[in-house]
Amino acid sequence: MRIGFNLPQFGSHAHHPEGVAEFARRAEEMGADSLWVGDRLLAPLEPEVNYPGTTAFPAEFRAGLDPFAALTVAAVVTTRPLLGSSVLVAPWYAPPLLARSLATIDQLSGGRVIAGLGAGWSPEEFRAVGVPMGERGSRFDECLDALAAYWGTNPVEHHGRFWTTAAGYVDVKPVQRPGPPVYLAAFTPAGMTRVGRRADGFLPAVTPGPFEPTIVTGPMSRIRAAAARAGRDPHELGVILRVNTMAGDSVHGIAEVVLRARDEAAVDHAFVDLTYRDLATSVEHAVDLAGRVLDLVRAR
């Protein structure tokens, strides 16, 4: 089973950006299989929608390092772990810029990027970037089309409802061909259908507490059915599980969630956000927790 960790990107860690390189190096030395970033712009004072699975907007999202910059740092100080996003909010970005950033990081890392993308959910953040939230689904679909075009063969060309690219040359391509694997987060029937039709895999998440296998198996059943309807092999789709934590969670409890996901939901790749809700108070603390989680999971 592959085990990874979020980079120290949010909350108090954002005020110590040197910790990104330090954690990435030390996580690789301990044998971590992947390193991850998220994508948040602000923490609204009076949110219209709270963070999924909670009744509040986590305070750590008041400060967040740029995900592309954090992944770039991790790319240049490591050689082995996969580098993923969970998730980049695809509708916020012009596809040519998103394609270029991910292709560049894939080049810098020697082909280790996992492009984890989502449709987004915070109305305040959509307004901040000037993108109508009601268009997020259609923009997301078109973004996937445009990424495939930009990462494909020259000449690159795209004509859509929101973006148009005249035929031209884009010679910086991802190392991975035809592009980095694309994993999508999904919470709605339409989102799960999109995963089945278009993605390489699914990015579910679990919040602190006992692990319930149907959090993974239920959506994956619907996703694989959508893949079959689209003429794809349902069993080719992967699952990478995000495990959120919070202050007070025990290392044994975190490891138990990962192990139950492996044994009861056939999850073969999971990553733990040790900085979510202030579980790890420093990079040194995060490194210690990561090492202990790795030891417990790999012992079983």
From TrEMBL:
Swiss-Prot/TrEMBL keywords: Flavoprotein, FMN, Monooxygenase, Oxidoreductase
Keyword Oxidoreductase: yes
Superkingdom as given in the UniProt entry: Bacteria
Molecular-function GO term, any one: oxidoreductase activity
Transmembrane regions listed in the UniProt entry: none
Pfam families: Bac_luciferase
EC number from the UniProt entry: 1.-.-.-
Enzyme class: oxidoreductase
PANTHER family in the cross-refs: ALKANESULFONATE MONOOXYGENASE, ALKANESULFONATE MONOOXYGENASE-RELATED
Protein name per its UniProtKB record: TIGR03619 family F420-dependent LLM class oxidoreductase
Source species: Pseudonocardia xinjiangensis
